[in-house]
Design a protein that fits this description.
By secondary structure, this protein is mainly alpha-helical. It has helices at 5-38, 52-108, 126-139, 177-183; strands at 111-114, 150-155, 170-174. It has four helices and three strands, in the order ααβαββα. Helix 1 runs antiparallel to helix 2.
Length: 192
């Protein structure tokens, strides 16, 4: 089982892809069965009077056709059951994806992304980055935020490494959402 949200999303996407492939294969099998059973044997003009051997041959072919028709009906029912289960798995994948999204969205309620603040040094620890964030909030006249209000703070790599040479953004995760709300003042323009 993947350990990260990204890993869970990728696993869910792979599972959804497999489900779609199985649905496609099941549809092909269903179409093949239908096309094979819809073929009617060519009946040529038969004389009105048939010999005993002909009667046995027609009976044998009739029995085979009845067996094939019973197989087709059973196979169609089985395919419908399998398709129903695949639809159930597909709905479960949707529910799992929505749950992952909800968890991720909920966890982001504690975060602030700070862009443009350079690191103190190359191997900056989480403690140093958190202290840097507290200094930033203090400079922005948000004095209610202390080091104890920050759970963690760290630089994250930019998504586009080819972007202009600016420092990596900082994610500052607060202990409580109330502290995050206090740190986000409406009367201050946050530009660095």
């Amino acid at each position: 089982m993947p350990d990260t949200v990204k890993g869970l999303k990728e696993a869910n996407k792979a599972l959804r892809s497999e489900i779609e492939e199985l649905k496609s294969q099941l549809n092909e099998v269903s179409q093949n069965i239908t096309s094979q059973t819809n073929k009617k044997p060519a009946i040529e003009d038969q004389p009105q009077v048939m010999s005993n051997d002909h009667n046995k041959a027609v009976e044998f072919i009739g029995k085979q056709y009845d067996d094939l028709d019973a197989f087709r009906k059973q196979a169609t029912q089985d395919i419908k059951k399998i398709a129903s289960r695949l639809d159930k798995f597909s709905r479960s994948c949707d529910e799992i994806y929505e749950a992952i999204e909800a968890i991720e969205t909920y966890s982001y309620q504690y975060n602030i992304k700070i862009v443009g603040l350079p690191p103190v040094n190359d191997k900056e620890s989480s403690d140093v980055t958190a202290a840097l964030c507290v200094k930033l909030f203090s400079a922005l006249r948000v004095n209610d935020v202390s080091l104890q209000d920050i759970d963690t703070a760290h630089h994250v790599p930019k998504r586009n490494r080819n972007s202009p040479a600016s420092p990596d953004p900082i994610i500052c995760k607060f202990v409580r959402r109330l502290v995050k709300t206090k740190s986000w003042r409406q009367d201050v323009k946050y530009t660095i």
